């Protein structure tokens, strides 16, 4: 038999499926027994079936390179799922709801009275130097005081087995379509596993997303007009934009398909004439949304859109300006936000974080840079960061210069011993590091967290970089009900 769990070595890591004894964790027992009984040929057939399903379903992601431009590639997928017991997930889910409530309170406060600044709990200088703070949004009141309607918070588990929030994505978080498609692929390839285990569903996400967006409509109507605003086919997440629009039964539009009339309402051009739009799920960055307010040369957005939003005639999700909290320096303050706005202790903790804007922290980072992961405040996708233990002396010195030049733009964190999960490498199960991005939907009436999320896995041996653009892949995430019905 190909997969022998007794020879699968777990050393110095927390493995999501296998304990240090070589025995499966209770929630993974049925899966591990099933995989153990597969032959080489069967494993190869399942891998081929998953690749064929990905091809037929058209699941791709876009990679950019200077030499070749943009390239669409098949989604890299591993057929061994990541498993989390429901008894553990319930605590994580509650903690994520708590976290996003506090983040929305912070954003609303920042664009109104700034009480947390007055209380001395958040430095005013961080706002003054924030590239995501939008002065144009001051005083605006989105429905329910909610700015980040869709949030993707990245979770990691350290060697101690504790789950931490690594960062929050509050502007235009992506990846949920891959979570949904991963599940569809697994159901096609392993239908019998879903019949024999109580795996909680993720398939209801598009309907939950639609209900959340519909709840934002400024007009009381049985079926509000919801559109997904995309930059177009050359955007790396275009597959997801089209997928979610199709799943919700919403129109997929580009900036040129919309216009704002003299009544400060947004309309969509159709073959039957203009149709009023109530809610826009925008997948365009703030600065390109409205050339009247932000970049005047933007052709991606809609002139007058912010004017219509301010007038309360259209809802935007996520709200412009939400990115003020999508900043790795602001991330370090989230536990304090929870205490200040909710009067609660955080249920899911942060990774310890050094803020280089703080002199004491900066001095520590410069002295211990070889032990730390240094990240710029507003980059994503794993770009622009230094992994100290893996960096050369020259790279460390270059980063020291960057930190000294602009300390506001950098944070540092200990290099976590990220958890692993068995991943097929040449038909053998080998440990690979991973993270998890659940998605949280916030409406004036409810907060919903996906049962699981997008598990990203570093396919290169020893790597902790999980982003698909840098060689990472993905797994289906199973929340298995271990509590009974």
From TrEMBL:
It holds the Pfam family CP_ATPgrasp_2. InterPro entries: ATP-dep_Glu-Cys_Ligase-2 (IPR051680), CP_ATPgrasp_2 (IPR025841), UCP005522 (IPR016450). Residues 81-458 form the Circularly permuted ATP-grasp type domain. This is Circularly permuted ATP-grasp type 2 domain-containing protein.
